[in-house]
Amino acid sequence: MPKFLIEVxxxxxxxxxxxxxxxxxxxNLLSRLREARVPHGKAYLFWTLRRFALLVEDLxxxxxxxxxEIRGPAVAAALDLQGNLTPAALGFLxxxxxxSKDLIRKKVGEKEYLFLRLERPGRPTAEILREIVxxxxxxxxxxxxxxxxxxxxxxxxxxxxxxxxxxxxVPLEIAGVRAGRVTFGHRxxxxxxxxxRPEEYVQRLKEAHVYADPFERAELLRAEIRKLEEQYGARAxxxxxxxxxxxxxxxxxxxxxxxxxKEFLELPEPVVVAALREEGKFVPYTRGGKIAEIFLGFAEGxxxxxxxxxxxxxVVGIRLRDALxxxxxxxxxTLESRVPELREIVYEARLGxxxxxxxxxxxxCRHLAREFSLPADRLDRAALLCKADILxxxxxxxxxxxxxxxxxxxxLDGEPEExxxxxxxxxxxxxxxxxxxxxxxGLALSLAEKLxxxxxxxxxxxxxxxxxxxxxxxxxxxxxxxxxxxxxxxLDLFGLIEEAAKRYPGTAPAEVVKEFLxxxxxxxxxxxxIPYDVAEAVLAQKRGDFLGVWERAQALAGLLGRRELADxxxxxxxxxxxxxxxxxxxxxxxxxxxxxxxxxxxxxLSAKSxxxxxxxxxxxxxxxxxxxxxxxxIDRYFDEVLVMCEDEGIRRNRxxxxxxxxxxxxxxxxxxxxxxxG
Length: 678
Hints:
Layout: E1 4-10, H1 15-35, E2 43-48, E3 51-56, E4 66-74, H2 75-78, H3 87-96, E5 103-108, E6 111-120, H4 125-138, E7 146-149, E8 152-154, E9 158-165, E10 168-169, E11 173-174, E12 177-178, E13 182-184, E14 192-194, H5 201-207, H6 214-232, E15 235-236, H7 240-248, E16 253-259, H8 269-277, E17 282-287, E18 290-300, H9 305-330, H10 335-338, E19 346-348, E20 352-353, H11 354-372, H12 376-385, H13 393-397, H14 404-412, H15 417-425, H16 440-459, H17 473-487, H18 493-501, H19 510-527, H20 532-538, H21 546-559, H22 563-579, H23 595-616, H24 620-628, H25 631-640, H26 648-666
Antiparallel strand pairs: 1-3, 1-9, 2-3, 4-6, 5-6, 7-8, 9-10, 11-12, 13-14, 15-17, 16-18, 17-18, 19-20
């Protein structure tokens, strides 16, 4: 079966966006192939800052045939009394170029309709590709688009395109550029490269000094980074952001080792890392908690190594000399002296100044100090100082050092280590891969800061959408849930939100914040491998103890596959079905008439005691085991007891008891939501 290669050549993409652009193109094209009924084999993605390409193997030569049914007029309107087609039916046939032999009759609901059954033969794949490749490129989301003619726009101007189906060019056009079989090698070391077949793409580009395969390029870069670690006994200070830049900005990387002058080695490690990251091509190293004397740069292509090294060292020296000046200037004042100036910085017009935000964070911290038995004075001190470093020159120059510089300056100001560490950790986690705070004060302060960043925007109506989240509410909400689940923090989050919401401007009720975080919890459960139906079961009743929800989800997931659980889920489904919409408050056991009622009542009392004891000790597995004992009595109850009997008093008493039984289950999970096999 044929192979298909599509490559789009562009002017230099931003390094941090190149991979995202390529991945989006892959998803767009493959989804369109599926929609167009064109089967294929494996698809390999290639990209650099100047190109993105997809090699698709085993592509079908034609799209699959399709049978389509189109609904027409109702039979009552389509046929007259003699069974002949009416003008409405004839017009329907004309519209689709069909004849009466293509018609079938089908019932939809209570009405019968005429349907056209049309067989659509598959078209050649080359024709399909001409249509869907330009669509897949237009659908790539871009932070900004450039327009260079009337044919469309893209993040950067498109300069060439390759489209080969086996050895033949697919005559498609992308933003005014006609596809051919000619790609381009390295901008300085090579030139045009004519391809005969798709499978030679990677090797021919490598001969033209381009590592188009990102995995091969990444392995080469990592090998050079590791080599220097072993040679100098140092560790690469390589953040995810820096790695993205290095991987995304070279096509033919060549390592260059440079040295950092001694005068800069006493700068705090994060400062040096931030200064070198600013250039996007230098990897700093650390040794023993301090910055090492070497760094690794990656030149693009060949060149005189000595000249490149001197140039790199000059650039690094300039950046670090600036950082040294920032550091010295900041040290002329304490963090505490900067706090009053926070009143002059607007956080958000409706939410007030940064000082207002700090005051709200302090309120949240007071609550958390009581909740987790933390030293309230130390936590309050950390909260008071946590945003002061945004007024320093260093953080204005390197915003990613917020919190980190606060911790460094707090230590130099003589603040207690636990206060300084909490300030340092309070901005973490900044993303999914970012580590969580490690100290109790840092966890509490981070949780308070993230909660403030969720409650405030939501109270003033800034609900994030799929493409818009200017205040990072979704990221902070995810961080709140992650901190609670991964650090095992047990608190009534909803109660805290109710209390805190009163201190925020805006009119959105606290329930909006609760619902938003509840949905973040739902996503967190699914990301952690909890099956969808289990997540639905434990999330059926909203509670502020997110850790308890996570524990119950794990316990319930651990029982999946046990026949007893499936049987209990079916039994509880009967309880839920009969009480849904008919919940009755209260019942009197002395009104029970059947032995099965009394048996279930006794089983309920025993299970209730065990469930409540297990949940008080945070042992949801034991609570589920207690509920399993109710399966037999529930089955017997529904076999022998008529709940909806004619006697209203007896009926209401039975519904009241089943309502109470349902509530016992719901303390653990709504088992009726489990998908039971068979």
